[in-house]
Design a protein that fits this description.
Blueprint (H helix, E strand, L loop, with lengths): L2 H7 L4 E2 L10 E11 L7 E7 L1 E6 L2 E5 L8 E8 L7 E11 L13 E8 L2 E4 L5 E4 L20 E3 L18 E2 L5 E2 L6 E4 L6 E2 L6 E9 L8 H7 L1 E4 L2 H4 L8 E2 L4 E2 L9 E22 L4 E7 L10 E2 L2 E2 L1 E5 L3 E6 L5 E11 L6 E11 L7 E3 L3 H16 L15 E2 H14 L4 H11 L11 E2 L8 H18 L2 H19 L45 H20 L3 H22 E2 L4 E2 L10 H10 L4 H11 L14 H8 L3 H21 L14 H4 L11 H10 L1 E3 L6 E4 L8 E6 L6 E8 L2 E8 L4 E3 L8 E6 L1
Length: about 800
């Protein structure tokens, strides 16, 4: 019996105290005592909440991390709990935070918690009589937003802690019982679905060390957030020996008790800067001894460009507050993930001894195995590949996310880059499938998807809807999962049929109004006005953009392949006719013979590298024109707006249409731009080459779309790409002009493909091992090339 049927069959109720409804950022604790006659190692807990939960049994942590879905399609978790239960009295304790406000990965639903614990023949269900209270430690109610893409910061007062999670605890007057009216049976129309991806793996503490320390002085300002106060604090450094007893050298690892000397007497408190060693994503954790009422403000960030953690950036607040109880304070915040490389702690209100035992995080990684491999004689390329894999992994949690630090949001444009990389290094298809399915749920009546999912946002980017169609087709090509492709086809048809109804003279006009942001790249003239201060992103007149129409061509071509794979030849032919007509119109109306390029917008003389690449990939550029465009892309003197990391994938893919001629340029550019990040100490790849200076000082230093070297090294330098779904047939066609040799492994649904190739004189030698059910093709073999191909 699954969670859906368990909830309904056993009449588990959705519980929430009436007096806490209608309020945002509410932390509510639930406690349910029950008796069991015997052990049962197979016992399971089915649980879901709006908006997030942390659960314990008999004081032992069980799990956290509600999968964010659409309110009408709630997702439940199944947690193994048999080893935590015991015969006799047990207690299930759960803290639930209800957000109540939407952001980039959450749509407000009905606040509540529902669960079924099943052990042998016994069942424990949520319902009337369950004990609850408002959490006495987390501050409920409005709090400063971490960013507009994420939820709020937190404040935790450890002086309110007690043993509420233990069986021995006796609830006091602060506790109440859920009344029958507060226990609602889930409505028949509401869907309950199992978590579509694996649960995150919570790791051991990250190694960390103190790299700066001293005294801070604070200028009181009630208008500032904790992040704002930290950002404005005056810092006065102290040597290690001045700051800590029994320590002399810097940096200082957490190898023992870090007892602070009483240096706070000449300031308002002490500060330390902690280095985790590399970019991390996980739960904030620290352990310190202090007097009751000592205040620990904790900021997190990705760099020390300001010689401190940049806690406040353009209204974003990367800091939280913890108020100490007397003695040992061990704290892990499991309701949100933080990301970055550095922590900064400002500890004020100190009166007595203060010992810092640890500050860092517990990584929360998606449990996926790195089964792909790539190696070349170039050590820089090998480092770039490994850093790309790590960047991608840091941006995988419940779904693909653009960055783990600032937004944690799922965009179809970003997810396309991430999925392509993931196929090659992880060979895992369920995770991208879940992300694509989430995005599909955001299709609106105006024919375009929400910009992010699951969310309702005030604007969207039209071209991202077309990138989603391409991603669905690429998932089918790599995975061979026709069942999933078939499940997505109704959304594909609804999207494209609705868009084609809007064609005006064989071209698609840009949709008008405040909802639509016509973004294509982070460069002038392609960013929808975002780089120009005071410029509205909306347009209200008829306008035709080449990139939008070229993306539509790519989407129609992708949809045609999907339709054929799903046995719908009629729809495929209809899309084929539509794309041919659209290609002709784009070329006739947007190509400038004088400029030898496609204008970004009809009637304007703006030319961008991305537009020309899309002209090649979409088939809008006839053969001789496409060849000339590629020649001009690799010419550094060509006066086009050059693409950023966001859209480089399309530039590189266009050049790879003639890979032996233009492929080396791709890898030279990767070595130059991505290598520049490594030379500056990057441990993950940045959002833009400007690093932290980008995006008004909020540039991300770990961005999923920048993992694309992983894909290009495997698909084009190693040279393995699927030709038919699931790698049933695949090509072996490396860019032999970019390296003298390469070796690697590409995971496929049939098993791994292993390839080693090397240039020997004027020919290439290949050693290939591939699984049964797959067939290799060597499109570039010369008369002197040698192949040793073995089927495993």
């Amino acid at each position: 019996m699954d969670g859906e049927s368990v909830f309904r069959t056993l009449k588990a109720a959705w519980v929430w105290p009436a007096e806490r409804k209608g309020q945002i950022s509410q932390y509510v604790q639930f406690r349910h005592e029950f008796d069991l006659p015997a052990d049962d190692e197979q016992a399971e807990l089915f649980i879901m909440a709006d908006s997030n939960y942390v659960a314990w049994i008999n004081g032992q942590f069980v799990g956290t991390g509600q999968f964010s879905n659409y309110p009408e399609k709630r997702t439940y978790d199944t947690l193994p709990v048999g080893t935590l239960l015991r015969p006799g009295r047990n207690v299930l304790a759960v803290v639930v935070r209800y957000n109540g406000e939407g952001f980039h990965s959450y749509i407000p639903g009905e606040p509540g918690l529902i669960y079924v614990l099943r052990s042998g023949g016994q069942t424990v269900v949520s319902g009337a009589g369950v004990q609850w209270r408002l959490c006495p430690c987390y501050r409920s109610g409005p709090m400063p937003k971490l960013s507009r893409q994420l939820f709020v910061t937190f404040e935790y007062d450890a002086r309110g802690e007690d043993d509420w999670r233990e069986c021995k605890y006796a609830p006091n007057k602060a506790w109440s019982a859920i009344a029958p009216a507060e226990a609602a049976t889930p409505p028949d129309g509401e869907q309950h679905v199992a978590r579509p991806v694996e649960r995150l793996k919570i790791g051991e503490r990250t190694p960390s060390q103190i790299v700066a320390q001293g005294v801070f002085r604070r200028m009181p300002d009630e208008s500032k957030t904790v992040a704002g106060l930290m950002h404005a604090d005056f810092l006065s450094t102290r040597t290690v020996s001045e700051a800590f007893r029994h320590h002399q050298a810097t940096p200082v690892p957490f190898e023992g008790d870090m007892e602070l000397c009483p240096i706070w007497t000449d300031g308002d408190g002490v500060y330390v800067v902690v280095d985790l060693g590399r970019e991390e994503a996980g739960f904030l954790e620290f352990d310190l001894e202090a007097n009751e009422g000592a205040v620990v403000d904790v900021g997190h960030g990705e760099h020390l460009d300001d010689l401190r953690v940049r806690t406040e950036i353009s209204g974003r607040n990367f800091a939280n507050r913890y108020i100490c109880k007397a003695g040992r304070n061990r704290f892990t915040h499991r309701l949100d993930r933080m990301a970055g490389r550095y922590l900064q702690l400002h500890i004020g209100g100190l009166r007595d001894r203060c010992v810092l035992n640890y500050a860092g995080c517990r990584p929360t990684d998606y449990p996926v195995e790195h089964t792909g491999r790539f190696q070349s004689p170039d050590s820089m390329q090998n480092r770039l590949y490994q850093t790309g894999v790590r960047t991608l992994h840091l941006c995988m949690h419940e779904r693909y996310e653009d960055c783990p630090w600032r937004e944690q949001a799922l965009y179809s444009n970003d997810a396309r880059n991430q999925a392509l990389c993931g196929y090659y290094c992880f060979g895992e298809y369920e995770f991208p499938k879940a992300s694509l399915a989430l995005l599909s749920g955001g299709l609106r009546d105006d024919g375009y998807m929400e910009m992010i999912a699951p969310a309702i946002y005030r604007r969207t980017i039209p071209s991202f809807s077309f990138a989603w169609v391409l991603s669905v087709a690429e998932h089918h090509l790599h995975s061979g999962d026709t069942e999933f492709a078939r499940s997505m086809m109704p959304t594909v048809r609804r999207l494209l049929d609705g868009v084609m109804d809007k064609l005006d003279g064989d071209l698609l006009p840009c949709p008008t109004g405040e909802r639509f942001w016509h973004f294509y790249d982070w460069v002038e003239g392609m960013d929808g006005g975002e780089l120009r201060k005071g410029y509205s992103h909306a347009i209200h007149e008829t306008r035709f953009d080449a990139p939008l129409n070229m993306y539509l061509c790519i989407a129609l071509d992708s949809a045609s392949r999907l339709a054929r794979a799903c046995g719908d030849g009629q729809t495929a032919k209809r899309y084929d006719r539509a794309v041919e007509s659209l290609r002709r119109a784009v070329h006739e109306r947007l190509f400038s013979k004088q400029a030898e390029a496609y204008a970004t917008t009809l009637g304007q003389q703006h030319y961008a590298e991305l537009t020309q690449a899309l002209a090649v990939l979409s088939g809008c550029a006839p053969g001789p024109v496409a060849e000339r465009l590629l020649e001009r892309i690799v010419d550094p003197q060509t006066p086009w707006q050059r693409s950023t990391f966001s859209q480089c994938i399309y530039i590189f893919e266009a050049l790879m249409t003639d890979r032996q001629r233009f492929g080396p340029h791709v890898f030279e550019r990767i070595d130059r731009d991505w290598g520049a990040m490594l030379l500056q100490g990057a441990t993950s790849f940045w959002e833009t080459l400007s690093g932290s200076k980008g995006i008004s000082g909020g540039g991300s230093l770990c961005h999923g779309w920048s993992a694309i070297p992983v894909c290009f090294y495997a698909a084009y330098l190693l040279g393995i790409r699927p030709l038919t779904p699931g790698f049933a047939s695949f090509e072996v066609n490396p860019v032999t002009g970019a390296a003298p040799s390469a070796t690697g492994r590409v995971p496929t649904p049939h098993g791994p493909i292993d390839l080693t190739w090397q240039r020997v004189g004027d020919h290439v030698e290949y050693e290939l091992r591939h699984p049964k059910g797959t067939e290799p093709h060597f499109p570039r073999l010369g008369n002197e090339d040698q192949v040793d191909a073995r089927c495993l």
